[in-house]
Amino acid sequence: MDSINRNQPEQNHQDLRGEEAVAEIREIVGRAQTCFFRTSRPVAGSRGVRPMNVRQVDDRGRLWFLGASDSHVVAEIGADADVELSFQGSPNSDFLHLTGRAALSRDPAKIKELWEPILRTWFTEGEDDPRIVVIEVAPSEGYYWDTKHGGLVAGIKMLAGAALGKTLDDSIEGRLRV
């Protein structure tokens, strides 16, 4: 019984709210940059999920994307604004799942703010392309899986734990409420 107590795993659960939740979202999204964006009501010819690049995460935790007015994602958001976003920032950590509501706009100032020349691949007329739609996702809740001390420390602890036959878990996970 004594050996069981010595091998207790580290405390690895921490729910985050408000600014702490936003900071965690920004950190993981900053590493992942692209997510699987799932809509609630797929249209014909769509599975309701697609990879999308996050253009920005603001101070309130809202995620900003650019989409095309003639795309499945825009049609699906128009039918039902409930969405889910799933991120993976590295092979062993930086996982994030968010649920929230999406909103569509054609705000030229926001398009200009989110624009990069590489986007001309999809919007051939540049930032003035009439097909560009701003997609704003306001997350309501989520769940994250990350490391407490960063990838390097987590990797060292994993190797040491395997060599010693001990649990040296550096993971942290919990609910997010924005």
Describe the structure.
The protein is an alpha+beta fold. It has a single domain (15-144), classed as Pnp Oxidase, Chain A, CATH 2.30.110.10. Helices cover 28% and strands 35% of the residues. The chain is built from 5 helices and 9 strands, in the order αβαββββαββαβαβ. It has helices spanning 2-6, 18-32, 72-79, 108-114, 151-164; strands at residues 16-17, 34-39, 49-53, 56-57, 63-68, 82-88, 95-105, 132-147, 171-177. Strands 1, 2, 3, 4, 5, 6, 7, 8 and 9 form a 9-stranded mixed sheet that branches. A hairpin with a 5-residue loop joins strand 4 (56-57) and strand 5. The longest helix has 15 residues, at 18-32. It is globular. The termini are far apart. The relative contact order is 0.22. The model is unreliable at 1-5 and 152-161 (pLDDT under 50).
Short description:
The chain has five helices and nine strands; from the N terminus they run H-E-H-E-E-E-E-H-E-E-H-E-H-E. The chain is 28% helix and 35% strand.
